[in-house]
Amino acid sequence: MYTDISVFEYASTVLEKLTPGIFLNTKHNNKINTMIIGWGGITIVWGRPIFIVLVRDSRATYNLIESSNEFTISIPISQSMKKEIALCGTKSFRDIDKFKECNFTPIKGRKIDTPIIAEAELHYECKVIYKQTLNQDVILPIVKSRYYNNNANHTVYYGEIIDQYLYKKE
Description:
Layout (H helix, E strand, L loop, with lengths): L1 E3 L6 H7 L4 E7 L2 E7 L2 E6 L2 E9 L3 H9 L1 E6 L6 H9 L7 H4 L4 E3 L6 E3 L4 E12 L7 H7 L6 E14 L3
Antiparallel strand pairs: 1-10, 2-3, 2-6, 4-5, 5-10, 6-9, 7-8, 9-10
């Protein structure tokens, strides 16, 4: 069952749930994946509601999002899903099917092809309208030493939020 919400109605929940992490879902052709993000959030850019996410170019998700230019965000609010977050934050799509391992039910987005995770309650569907690879030369040394020790780059994706809702499995 779907319940429509306003874009910013759960913005504080999104920020709270970034730690321990939220699910970023991607799809291209028949390949679906989810990963955990702990950076990002909802804002307004160019007068549009935007969900900003950062993805390393070494992640399998990077190739999927680059191919599809869309993503969904699924956030558990009534349950912690700690075990699933831990698995999806440490395992690669290259090695396992995270949807299968976590017994996630993929539900096609209402406005895009990328699925949501039915077991989570809060969802955002996003179309990439801008992206920028971060320039490591201008990143502060303390940040660079912690997050950029293997020469992997992060790309910042600006996903226009085109749908947002709560979903409860019946």
